[in-house]
Amino acid sequence: MTDSKISVVDGRWQMAESQQLAISADIRAAISEYGAAILHKIGHGGKN
What we know:
This protein is an all-alpha fold and 48 residues long. 88% of the residues lie in helices and 0% in strands. The protein has one domain. The termini are far apart.
């Protein structure tokens, strides 16, 4: 009984982890785009 409960918890944890990885990948893409825009402005001497 305890083994089956653990496997269910593991399955949920793995699902949650894969969702976290997908979310963090989206966040990383957004941050890199934002960072590229800032570097582009700095490179052109724009302060605002």
